[in-house]
Amino acid sequence: MTSKLLYFITTVVLVINVSLLQILSPSAQGIPATTQNSHISTSMSRNTQKSHPANNYHTNAENWQGQLFRSDMIGKPVSKADVERFRHDARLGIPGAEFDLGYAYYCGDGVPKDPAKGVYWWKRSAAHGYAPAENNLGCAYHTGRGIAKNLEKAILWIRRAAWQGNIKAEYGLGSFYYKGQGVVRDYGRAVKWWAKAAHRGEIDAQCRLGEAYYLGRGLPKNFMLALYWWRKATADNCGPAEADLGILYIQGQGVPRDFVKAREWFRKAAKRGDAAGENNMGVLYSRGLGVRKNYHKAVNWYRLAALQRYPEALSNLGNMYFYGRGVHHDIKRAIYWWRKGAAHDSSAAMRHLANCLLRGVGVPVDRKHGLALLQEAAAKGDVKAQTEYAAIVHTKK
279: which of 84, 89, 272, 313 fits an S-S bond (Cβ 3.0–4.6 Å)? Predict the structure, then answer.
């Protein structure tokens, strides 16, 4: 009976699919005549670098740099005596000691930092089939820290660790499949590995599994299960999952729409330094959603996220300077932030900058560059950029 009820609830929730862009649709009021077609908006995003979750979704999995695994010494200060014990046991060929000594050198924990020595000891430990060392060796190959970067070897070692059930490796291997880095992109395999790690408490895997259910990548879209996994991750104080939960409350997906609860989750994420949470707090204040509208506070939140080079925040901060909201009107400064946003893959920033270049607003007219930027933003799924680019191409014909 319980399973039937859950199935019914899930089916009903799947029907609810209110677009975030409809909730936060920008107004063209007050846009100078020279830029009325640019549709400058303030974009909210999930733990992302995108303006709409269905179009430009760049997750932590896209930027995964490997997760080092540390065994029973985690959270404990490593003393010189500990290092000597590791060294003694490592020379006897004990895999765990080789691993711990490698970790100490790699991270400079109890000894001067020496990533190359760390990799040396991890290689010895991995040769014994010790899964944590296999994972960390793969991470070193992936980042090129302590050893020459080699994606093929990174995947090889992380895969070996994942086969032994190392949860960091399971999450990492899933991320490779999600991104299609060094392997053929396969969302199905990505969620398979994330699910293995998530069920055993790996927080990042729980976040990403929730994302997969939210987007319907690798498995059917299901907001209730996205909610379930994000809530599990927030139980361990995961900032990205807190920001994601806020979006569910904004959109009313899997939960009743509630801007106040959305604000609570965004604030929790922002206080942990999560850039998406900071950016989304800025959106709430700039729109007056769940809070009293306050452009100064919006700018402060955008700036915090922009300092982390968060693409949507870079674009949004440019918008505030363009309109003079919470800051003095300064087109040059707006263009400065849009350039930064464009350099970090924000399609909205590309579109705004393109319109300035096409019309000579704050910069000399450069139609070639402007059109190229608009085309790139359109290729990233920016609907407004697609419309504007199509209109320009049609006019040329």
Answer: 313
